[in-house]
Amino acid sequence: MIDLSPTTWLAIFVAGLGILVLLRIPVAVALLVVSSVGAVLLYGFSPGIEMTVVSMVSGLATFTLTAIPMFILMGELLFRSGVAFSAIGAAERGLARLPGRLAFLSVGMGAVLGVLSGSVMASTAMLAGTLVPEMERRGYSRRLAVGSVLGSGGLAMVLPPSTVVIVWGATAGVPVGPLLIAGIVPGILMALGYAFVVGAWSAFFGGAERPAVVGKRPARAVEERKAPADSGARAAGTSTATQAPAAIPKGPAGASGGERGSLLNLVALVGMIAGVLALILFGVATPTEAAAVAVGLTAVILVVQRRLTREVVVAALKHTLLATGMVFLIIGAATIYGRVMAGSGTVTAFVDGVTGITGNPTVLLVIMLAIVVILGLFLESIAIVLLTIPLFMPIVHIAGFDPIWFGILMIIAIQIGTVTPPFGMSLFVMRQYAPKSMPMSEIYKAAIPFVLSDLAVVVLLAFAPAIVTSLPSLV
Amino acid sequence: MNSARDGQGKADRVLRAVTTASAVLAGAGLVYMALATIAGVVLRYVFRAPNRFLFESTEFALPLTVFFALGMVALYDRNVRVDLIPRRFVRTNHKLDVASRFVTAAIAGTFGWFAVQIFVRDLDTGIRMGSTFGLPRWILTLGLTVGLVLFAANELRTGLERLHAGVPAGDERDAGASAEEGQA
């Protein structure tokens, strides 16, 4: 083993990774390279390389992680078949009496898409690709349109069955079931915060459409309804949980099945999600088993509705594999990165360094959350989770934090990083869908009220941990 | 020239076919995981007969599914990359993109080579996952080898394709030229 100082190790791990990532090397490959260099320096060439390859194999053979592809598959099946879009249509009709209903709908859709896709980027892309052009067409303020989507897209990371939460729990050694359940109340609080921002915005600054006249719908409103439905038909087969569709999400042609059908789909969807969460909450099934049962239930719903076609199955499987391959390559590489970093003594040095600055748990918490928000500006959420867990978990134990509470705070902080200017990844996703004439600076400004709302939730949860821990304590 | 292009087209078709075949195996793994987990729940709760094989094989199927999907992830360019250079610098981004594809292909290929060696040794020693009753590890190292090789090959293909396609229209040179024209 080569004897290097902790600073040199830290430089290898952080600077090496940073340089490779900036050179547009995929994050997973960059992690793999830095880890193998570290392993070779630590253990010698052959053992180091062998450790890297074997860790890649053994690190992924974890039953808990199986929940991720299962939940992704469930979401894909629901999107591909049009059931999810049909349910969202029913939700929109339910909000018809509210001023600025599309902005409220984006919050609701953010929650539903979050539950179904578990990915912030996918959720933001889908909301942005569908609701922003529609809100622009209906004369909403551009900032309200963009801001509401940016905020609500992030709900995917907190609400169960978030992929990030599963990875966090599995890697940190925290039970995934209670952790998933712990995300429910904070996720709802975040959604309520966004709804409050949208409501206040509509009330005080305008820029939102007036409520629809229910029962006496003017001809123009009827025409407005037809247009998105037609565009949704054109988008048939293009919309997906992991890739943004090109048009408003009404799903494949004829998928909505009328208002009654849409309402039934909404009930079925909500019922299934509630049922799956109940299985986890009451300890009947592990998250992985609940996820597999959810896939089975989804298949049954689609068979009953005669929507389980070969095209739907193939497309859902294909997109699930693409998302799974991408996510798990990062997980595998980051697992090795964490092991090598721990073996080099960097983790101990980092923990000593941070706890040497202060022993105050609140300051430690603020430092760790700030690091996560800053990393969130540059890195993919799962990569952040996997990079910071080996460094943070010893501090969490030293400070005596509840790991479930800390995990949820950390995940919200990562979510804030994705919408924080100037480099938050959701902002770049939004750039593709926002009106061309809207400068990036206006997108930043649009995100600010929603980031402040998230920060308010973080502060609330930080000072009242029971909000996070009370529900999982029932498990 | 034409024969070279034909050869490249043929290689491209072969690569796509092999990648698709590997993805089909990954898809089968995904379906197996779902069915085996559901079966495990049913056996445990309905028949009161938990099945260890279903549990272990699901754990085993996950990395196999991921490895067989790696080629497709590269083919559809779904790897997470960080773009920090503003989009208006099209030429710089193009150069960096092509170079990063080749470097990524080289790295994945190198790891693929190491994985082959470990696969051969695993086959020789008969080492198993978890315990002596676990499933043989060589199946996973074979899957990793296939995945990394296809990953490298698809990155290389994309790199070559983009290199030959050249810089997309509207790069910073054009922007500079049009600005100069405007000033003139």
How would you sum up the major sheet of chain A? none
SS elements, strand count of chain B: 0
Low-confidence segments of chain B, given as residue ranges, are 173-179
Helix content of chain B: over 70%
Q: Which structural class fits the helix and strand makeup of chain A?
A: mainly alpha
Proportion in β-strands of chain B:
under 5%
Number of strands of chain A: 0
| Biggest interface | A-B, 57 and 49 residues
Main sheet summary of chain B: none
Which regions of chain A have little confidence, pLDDT < 50, spanning 5+ residues? 213-256
Number of helices of chain B: 5
Mean residue pLDDT of chain B: 85
Structure notes:
The complex is a heterodimer of chains A (475) and B (184). Chain A is built from 23 helices and no strands. About 9% of the residues of chain A have low confidence. In chain A, helix 1 packs antiparallel against helix 2. Chain B is mainly alpha-helical and 184 residues long. Chain B is elongated. At the A-B interface, helix 2, helix 3, helix 4, helix 15 and helix 16 of A face helix 1, helix 2, helix 3 and helix 4 of B.
Keywords:
heterodimer, A: mainly alpha, 23 helices, B: 184 residues, 5 helices
Brief characterization of the structure:
The complex is a heterodimer of chains A (475) and B (184). Helices cover 76% and strands 0% of the residues of chain A.
How do the strands and helices of this protein lay out in sequence?
The complex is a heterodimer of chains A (475) and B (184).
Chain A: H1 6-22, H2 27-43, H3 45-60, H4 67-80, H5 83-94, H6 101-117, H7 120-137, H8 142-153, H9 155-158, H10 163-172, H11 176-182, H12 184-205, H13 219-234, H14 258-281, H15 287-304, H16 310-344, H17 346-357, H18 361-376, H19 381-399, H20 403-418, H21 425-433, H22 440-463, H23 466-469
Helix pairs in contact in A: 1-2, 2-3, 2-16, 3-16, 4-6, 4-15, 4-16, 5-6, 5-14, 6-7, 6-8, 6-12, 7-8, 7-21, 8-12, 8-22, 10-11, 10-19, 10-20, 12-22, 14-15, 16-19, 17-19, 18-19, 18-20, 19-20, 20-22
Chain B: H1 2-45, H2 52-75, H3 90-125, H4 138-165, H5 172-183
